[in-house]
Design a protein that fits this description.
Layout (H helix, E strand, L loop, with lengths): L1 H11 L9 H18 L6 H26 L7 H18 L4 H26 L3 H20 L3 E2 L3 H8 L1 E2 L3 E2 H19 L1 H11 L1 H6 L4 H27 L1 E2 L7 H11 L11 H20 L4 H29 L1
Antiparallel strand pairs: 1-4, 2-3
Length: about 325
């Protein structure tokens, strides 16, 4: 029975199948790129793509962690404030101590693991809804960042700044390399490991997953750890990029990451979606934000477009879920 379920899962969620959203996203991207290139030819320049590749991967890393949670049928709305708190604490450490960079990174990831542990325990072992739990955590972390920061925190550490500001071969931004490494590892995990299969099975039908011997609570708990850890790493990249931090760092990231996931085909209902779609979605969302800036679109219009895309993606997802259930 278990082998049959696994086979059906990966037939349906093959990123290159006729039911995949990936081909549509490729078409959407090229149409959008053509539009912005007509409006401003600089959009398709190497320098501009370097700009996109420097900014978009950071929120993309957050989306990778959030995507894992969504695949199990839950949601993590605390990722933005997790990144913000980690950024503030990291900036304070860098300003006030001589800790090695590796120690600062370990502290940041540890903070993420603690936050993920709390979220995972409350959702899976106490039984509180994930939206309520992580929304409460979002508020708590945001308040903590405000209290701790006391304003904007600046520091001077050339080595730490190179984490996100550096370029490999003088062309490829370091942050893009981090993102590519992580997304490849996560894709391989979801596609070829027992843990990855368990994530899909739990999200598709937790009752059936439990019936075939999967530890549903542990699986859901572990993805919360991943989500917060990725958000913490993104916070490190952000504070490295700006050589400083403020309490409002990471504000709105949860909704940007959610947009990237849903546009990329990861369902809010769990059990459906691949990281191929998420990668294409990040390319679209990152390029959209960049393109709107290049044609001098006011900031509130950019928020309107991003919000509209999220709403449209949710509506489309609801239809896809309905069609999926009818097919089964």
């Amino acid at each position: 029975m278990k082998n049959t379920i696994n086979k059906n899962i990966f037939i349906r969620f093959n990123p290159f199948s006729s039911k995949s959203i990936s081909p549509t996203l490729v078409i959407v991207y090229f149409l959008m790129a053509a539009f912005f290139a007509i409006k401003n030819p600089i959009f398709i320049s190497l320098k501009n793509y370097q700009t996109i590749a420097t900014n978009a991967p950071i929120i993309g890393i957050v989306a990778l962690g959030l995507g894992m949670v969504l695949l199990t049928g839950n949601v993590d709305l605390s990722v933005g404030s997790t990144a913000g708190l980690v950024a503030v604490i990291s900036a304070l450490i860098l300003r006030n101590t001589d800790f090695p960079i590796m120690v600062v990174l370990l502290i940041a990831i540890l903070i993420g693991l603690v936050i993920g542990t709390i979220n995972g325990l409350i959702v899976n072992y106490i039984g509180v809804n994930s939206i309520i739990t992580t929304l409460g955590m979002w508020a708590a972390l945001k308040g903590a960042a405000m209290i701790i920061s006391g304003g904007t925190i600046y520091f001077s550490n050339k080595g730490f700044q190179l984490i996100s500001k550096g370029f490999a071969f003088g062309i490829i931004p370091n942050v893009l390399i981090y993102f590519i490494i992580i997304i490849i590892l996560m894709y391989l995990t979801l596609r070829y490991t027992k843990f990855g299969r368990n994530i899909y099975l739990v999200g598709a039908n937790s009752i059936s997953a439990r019936a075939v011997g999967i530890n549903v609570k542990r699986t859901k708990f572990l993805v919360f750890l991943l989500s917060s850890s990725f958000a913490a790493f993104a916070g490190i990249l952000l504070v490295s990029q700006f050589a400083g931090a403020a309490y409002n760092y990471g504000t709105g990231w949860e909704f940007k990451a959610l947009t990237i996931c849903i546009v990329g085909g990861i369902s809010l209902n769990g059990g459906r979606g691949t990281y191929v779609g998420l990668f294409l979605s990040l390319l679209i969302i990152g390029s959209l934000s960049n393109g709107l800036t290049m044609i001098n679109m006011p900031i509130y219009w950019r928020d309107f477009f991003e919000g509209s895309i999220l709403l449209l993606a949710i509506i489309i997802d609801s239809f896809r879920v309905k069609n999926f259930k009818e097919d089964t």
